[in-house]
Amino acid sequence: MPPHQNTRRRTLALALLAGLTAAPSALAETPHGLVETVVLDATDTPQGNVQLVADTQYGNVPYIAFQEEPAPLEDAPQADPPQPVPMDEPAPAATVDAASMAAPVVTSCNCCTTPCCTKAKKAAATAAMKSAYAGVFYANNFSYLNDPCYDGPSFFGDSLKGMLGGKLDIGGEARMRYHNENNFRGLGLTGVDDSFFLTRYRMFANLRINEYFRAYGEYLYADSGGETFNNRPIEENRGEIQNLFLDTKLTDSLNLRLGRQELLFGDQRLISPLDWANTRRSFQGVRGTYKGDAWTVDGFFVNPLNRNAANESKIDDANEDVDFYGVYASNSGTALGTVDAYYLGLNNQVLDFDYHTLGSRVAGSSDAGVLYAMEGGVQFGSNSPGYGDHSAGFFTGGLGKQLSICTGCGEWKPTVWFWYDWASGGDDVPAARGDDSFDHLFPLAHKYLGLMDLFGRRNINDVNAQFITPILGDKVKLLVWYHHFFLDQATTPYGVTMAPFNPANAAGDKELGQEIDLVLTCGINPRTNVQIGYSHFRAGDYYDTTAGVPTNADADFFWTQFQWRF
């Protein structure tokens, strides 16, 4: 890429930050009134990428969460339900009031050693520090820095929070990952090997103008190097305006957001910023949130950004040929735990299909400590020409438990989960994105259907089990995850982009294969972690008996990642 284009991208990022920083100091110091969601990881560390998470507390019961992120404008309550996951990706989240993020706290307790700073208050301040970074950075909450009861460590970048009299926060993230892919470079089991490095940098500026307005901007730079074959579209984006929006408080209960924005709802099975990707997913449009006493209701109409793979240094435009809209309601205070209900619409004018999804989610724990999570929905509408009317569905169900085992070294508390995932398939051959199979919309498939990303939530059955345990102390976690994949209909599997893997040939056998995933996560501190992962896929009879498949060989995946937030 020509040097002047690199300079232009860096100049744009600096200009975005400089513009927000240069706001008049005369602006009111009242915090913005939005309510945001914070996502915690296994060690109660806020997360925003794909990372292993385990043993986060749901009430008094630990659950599995994925390090990635909140949702609605005020970010629909993500609750504290159990979630399967490799790190990066959130699941349940805790809701905090964004108003606490602006001005310093006024209190008579001016030292953490005074009597009013109880042990519980100090613990709460420390927990707030660990959860300061959310799955979407516009939901970050650094109010703990103003808490006189906080006596924990300080971190690089703390001095950039609460500037301009408490109105401006600046920060970011640096992430580096190495991939060694055997037999699956590309999409699906391809028989192609490759190894490469991925790097990603994010910078954000959050300006609380007054009690009615907030401006937020975020810049992303993602690159890859060392590969033999062309990179995937989700691996390079050399300069992107990831978020740039204005929040407006219309009433005490109603907020409006206009501009470029990431979306994350529920457990990310259908809507996610896709943090595992080196690039992140974003949209452009409008979103409103109503916050009631029990329910949060979020409505949106957006267009996804159109990733320009031909020019990886170009700022992406919104794809106005694809409309995505819906209503998402969530209540985290029911007797069952978190209950969500939603309607989602997707209209693709290029492929000429129109889908409507009605679904719900329940997640929580029983009095006996049994963890549970269920989500399902129906999908209807019209397929692409030649495929008729659309009728599809999906279901996920999981049961888990944190065990308590006495050993010679003390109490051992691993967590186990058993899951079943199903998404319907059509009987169309040749297959296409707009056929009668379930469409998973804009999800984080990596969070649920295997870390090798061989299959999307479409024409699939996945019987899987997780085992999560701390090792070598609380800062190191091990995830072991087993998957058994088989087709719903004897056509073809689909990739995470919803493209059919082998569109012209019916399946000779439904048995796709088995995958085992291992992830070791080390939390160096609440802002820095390192992960090492290995996955193996044993190809099933589908690859031996079906015409047109590139290979029937097994596949392996080794990766390691470093992430730092500031």
Name the descriptors:
566 residues, 4 helices, 25 strands, disordered N terminus
Describe this entry's structure for a reader.
The chain has 566 residues and is mainly β. It has 4 helices and 25 strands. The chain has helices spanning 3-21, 119-130, 163-166, 541-545; strands spanning 35-39, 56-58, 61-63, 93-97, 168-182, 194-208, 213-225, 237-249, 254-261, 283-291, 296-306, 317-318, 322-334, 337-348, 353-365, 370-382, 389-402, 405-407, 410-412, 415-423, 460-470, 476-486, 511-525, 528-539, 555-565. The chain has an 18-stranded antiparallel β-barrel. It has a two-stranded antiparallel sheet with strand order 1-4. The chain is globular, with a radius of gyration of 23 Å.
TL;DR of this structure?
The chain is mostly beta strands and 566 residues long. The chain is built from four helices and 25 strands.
**Overall residue-averaged pLDDT value:** 84
Strand percentage lies at: 35-45%
Low-confidence stretches: 1-108
Q: Helicity, in percent?
A: under 10%
End-to-end distance: 29 Å
The number of strands is 25
Largest sheet: 18 strands, antiparallel, barrel
Helix and strand layout, with pairings?
Blueprint: H1 3-21, E1 35-39, E2 56-58, E3 61-63, E4 93-97, H2 119-130, H3 163-166, E5 168-182, E6 194-208, E7 213-225, E8 237-249, E9 254-261, E10 283-291, E11 296-306, E12 317-318, E13 322-334, E14 337-348, E15 353-365, E16 370-382, E17 389-402, E18 405-407, E19 410-412, E20 415-423, E21 460-470, E22 476-486, E23 511-525, E24 528-539, H4 541-545, E25 555-565
Antiparallel strand pairs: 1-4, 2-3, 5-6, 5-25, 6-7, 7-8, 8-9, 9-10, 10-11, 11-12, 11-13, 13-14, 14-15, 15-16, 16-17, 17-20, 18-19, 20-21, 21-22, 22-23, 23-24, 24-25
